[in-house]
Amino acid sequence: MPAVAKLGKREHPVKSAIRKVLDNLRSQLTWLDLIVGLIASMAISALLGGFQSQEIPDYRIGSIATEDVRARQDAYYEDVEATETRRESARSSVPAVYEVDVSLIARREDEISRAFEAARQVMAERRIPRKGTGAAKIEPGILRELSARVGGAFSPDILPVFFRHRFDPALESKILKVLDAVLRRGIVADPAQFWKDRKSGITLRDASRPSELTLTDTYQARDVAAAAEQIRLYDLEFASLPSTDRASIIRYLQSLLVPTLLFKEAETNLRRQAAASAVAPVEVHIKRGAIVVRSGEEVTPRIAQQVAALTNARRPRSLLGQFAGFFFFVSIFLYSLWRYFVYYQRRHLKIRNHTVLILVVLFMVLLVMRLLASLADILSERLAIDVFRDPFNLYFAVPLAFGSVLITLLVDVNLGIISSLIVSTLAGLFFGDIHLAAYVLAGSLAGIYSIRQYKDRAAILKAGLTIGAVNVLGLLAINILRQEPLSLRLFSSALGFGMANGILASALASVLLPALESLFKITTDIRLLELSNLNAPILRRLSVEAPGTYHHSLMVGTLSEAAAEAIGANPLLVRVAAYYHDLGKMLKPEYFVENQIYGTNKHESLSPNMSCLILASHVKDGLEMAAEIGLAQKIRDMIPQHHGTRLMTYFYRKAKDAAEAKNQEVDEADFRYPGPKPQSKEAAIMMMADSIEAASRTLSDPTAAQIQGMINRLVDSIIADSQFNECDITMRDVRLVKESFFRVLTGLYHRRIDYPGYDFRQIEDDLGATPVPNSGPKPAATV
What we know:
Elements: H1 2-26, H2 31-48, E1 69-70, E2 75-78, H3 80-92, E3 96-100, H4 102-125, H5 139-150, H6 159-164, H7 169-185, H8 191-197, E4 202-205, E5 213-214, H9 224-232, H10 243-255, E6 261-263, H11 265-277, E7 283-286, E8 291-293, H12 301-314, H13 319-344, H14 351-382, H15 386-389, H16 391-395, H17 402-410, H18 413-431, H19 434-451, H20 458-481, H21 488-520, H22 525-531, H23 537-545, H24 547-567, H25 571-580, H26 608-628, H27 633-641, H28 649-661, H29 681-696, H30 704-720, H31 731-748, H32 760-767
Helix pairs in contact: 2-13, 2-14, 3-11, 4-5, 4-7, 9-10, 13-18, 14-17, 17-18, 17-19, 17-21, 18-19, 19-20, 20-21, 23-24, 24-25, 24-29, 24-31, 25-27, 25-29, 26-27, 26-28, 29-30, 30-31
């Protein structure tokens, strides 16, 4: 039970530390984050809104222009007359829709069929024979009854004819056949309208057909009179009847004719309107630099349209609408930036600090863009130089790439690339020019990749020159895309504007970098280069007061730098951190074995617990000294992390042996460093380098196998002690780190030939030197 209790007690601070780290990494949005994000989005949107790059005079049709109006950018406008002409052509090309009134034909035919059936039923009831002479005697009475029963379907003239033929079903079928053929052929009410519609074509819609039919020129439409004449052609259908009966039937059929081909005006108009709507507006392109109207010229309707197009291109209809549009894009960009931090940049523990930094840089970039764009407009109106009269030429000199350079230096390359995408997109929306957006993006990427590796402050100037060179090429490419001829004048203007952009970008980055470093407490590589100067007062003091520790720190820096380069970590950061990681040993240098050059080991007269406290105190002392000299936070964080929570094995075993002799127990937690464990790859590298460098001092004339075995044993023990649980180092990284340590140490301990005529051990005996007592292999945890 005591062991279990001790184990639980020992794990509690570790769990607490892990929970704290996970909470920092999770970095969920709070109400404060949302409020800050909304304020930032509104501020940037307000900064971008309401931009006008050109004041366009309000010319009316018929007025006289008082000044030249030149298009300072490409613009487009709709030619209303040309658009309407095309749409009218589209309307006229749509065929008129006519529909055969099938329901009317069906009603007529059904009415005749029912009348014949009713008449045959009356004759059956009256027992009138189908054939014979007796029927004539009762004909007047039966005709009256038939007339009453058929409901007026048959006229008084045709009823006797049908009666004489006893309402023969065959006769009924012929009548229906002829009537159906004539009615379905189509009878129009207005032949003049029909002939007019034939010019654009006619689509015939018939419910009895699966699809619509387009009428050809051979189709002959008929009105009622023409259809009546056509009925006469069907006289042969009734050839078996007497001529008088045939004539009566023909007249009866003619009386049944009605218009059956109906013009569907609503459907036709709907189709023609759809065709007109499908016609795209006719756009007229006003090329950048073209003179729309000259001073003294009368404003025609076409010129008025072009002036309105230039006005609409640069002057928003509604500032509120423009603000809303920018707010949408800005808020999406900022939220995406936040999520990128949370999910893909978890190594940045201070997410909010970095997010605010990027917001500040973005705002400064856009503010510079707005101010310099306004200045460009003023210069274009005041300067008589032709190349300056178009403010868009001056816009290409606005140094927007400095923001990406700053973010790359202050945060990292990935965030620099994302910020360049945001800035270039907003610049394109602001100026309304896709070419300028691509130009800004190309220059920003050039600055990012040129500043990624740098060794001094002059690197920013070199980055500016790189940005300028890429800008010159970008301007030439844009002019090629615009199909403008290349000339010496064009090349010279591209060279001037592009290089001015790059130089201004480097100047702004150089001026703002120190202020942002101090304001957000961020350590850049340039600051690390300054800290790596071995002539710094604190390092000179370390070399005098604790020379062993000083040389140990240099070796740890060499090992760490090589390992960081092998796994893609920051080699400069880990080297500089190694220089300062043992500052605390200056207060009691004699208690650390590397400084015990001559004399006895002071720990021999101390208890293991007291020795442990002295060794652990150098971490606390180092943090205090680092704070006094204003050491960068990244370096200060790695001072306690390079020991983590490792066990001081030598003194723990010494205490345990003494306790066993007295039948007592020793708490392992009392002999561990306070931590925290390494939080980054760089801290993990320095922990391994610190242990291996200390252990390598115990080797005399080592072989490659001994060095490899020592590295593997020490690194594996650190991993087994769970010291890397809170950082993102991988097993592949550990393997590469081991390999780099092996290369450095084998180079350091390479075998040399003996100096001829010298025996340095004999010289030592002759001088009577007393060897320093060796306390055995020095555990890495005691460094």
